[in-house]
Structures are given as C-alpha cells and as structure tokens.
Amino acid sequence: MTKDNLHSSHRKRLKNRFLQEGLESFEDHQVLELALFFAIPRKDTNPIAHRLLRRFGSLASVLNAPISELVKVEGMGEHAAIFLKMQHGLLLKYQASFYQQKLNLSSHKECMKLVHERMKYLNHEEFHVLCLDSSMRLINYLPMFKGTVNSATVNLREVTSKVLELDSSAIVMAHNHPSGVAYPSPEDLSLTESLLTALKYQDVEVLDHLICTSTNCYSMLKDNKIFELKQKINSRIPKLFLAQKTGGFTD
Description:
2 domains; 10 helices; Cytidine Deaminase, domain 2; alpha+beta
C-alpha cells in the first residue's frame, strides 16, 4: 500500500471514529490532527499535532497562540494557522450566541460562571464588558481589549461609548490574570474607580469588576470594593449614585 493510501485510510478511520463517538474520547493530539485534515489535505498531520503540543503545552494554548507563532511550527503554513484560529473563534462565537439568547444574569453566581468560562483558558490579559438591560438580561458580551501576559490597556472613552451605544442600564467589567493571582492590583482599582466615575452621570450602574484566573474568579462586589469606591467618589462628587435601575444581583 502506498504512503498516500495509508494516510487516506488513517484519515477515514479517524473521521469515522469522530462520527461515532464525537471528540470526548480523543486525545488532544488527535483533535488537532483531525482539525488539520481540513487545512492540510496531503500531509500526515499527526507529527504536526505533536509538534504543536510540544511547543505550546496544551490544546488550549495552541488555540490561544497567535498566528505569528503557529506558523513557526514545522509543517504549519499560514492557511493551517488561520484555520485553527478560526476554530477557536467559532467556539467563542458559539458561547456568546448561546448565552446571549438564554442567560439572565440576575444571579451573581451565573454571571461569574459565564465570565470564568470565557476567560479561564486565556494565556494573555483581556478586558471584557457585559452590557445588561434593566431586567438584568445580557444585551451583549464584549471582549474589548487584548494585551500581553501581564497587562491590557483599556480605553475608557471607548468603553463608555460602547456601553451608551447599546443603551445599557448596567455593566459588569471583567479581566483575567494569567499569572494566577485572582486579586485586584492598584491599577485595577484605579480603572474601576475611573469607570464608576465616567458612568456615574450617564445613569449606568457598574455592578461588579471580576478578575479571573484559570481556576478562580474574584469579585470586587463581594469583597466590598465596589461599595468602598462609590463611597470614595460620592465624598468627592456631591451627587449621589441613582438607585440601581436593575435592582442588582439576587444572590
């Protein structure tokens, strides 16, 4: 049997296994191998999958890797790298679409769960904003800014503009700490204070600022930081915060 026929038979077996079992029983290298069938039609993708995992460490890290790094792996061209990134993008789009249609975020636990699911696999910092209506339904989940392993620059004007454009009654901010420390830095507290101040006179309530790691999710609301910052702002700016139109979280 020729080498091409061997590859063809192996591909057919792996595809049939997927049709019968799904991906649950697949090892990470087999998931990548199968995905790469559709981007690299005439090569053995098994060694490429193993090289990807050796370089990046895990399936999640492979999908999170930038295209500029993926193409450095032997056997990976730009087409294959774009294809893998598209799979990751499709997953995030699916999650956003699913939750946007079904999720009411009046439960603080459900809100934290949603954010943690979106952020726990990221290996770089991102800043997200959840825009909510007056019934605590999700209007839109916005991954707004991407950064490096240790930081992401947030443009306050852009955040405020987007929140108002969507006619949000309230927002929840979230970002991740790839370092694994789920606790706010002085810069995180300063950012939260700035957004509280910026949205104060727009009648948009900042309900929480969540900080996620791969295993944990910290809440400034539960740690009383949101209340303390509002008190600090109110002592400096006489006008009090309006009562929350949303009523806030129920738990």
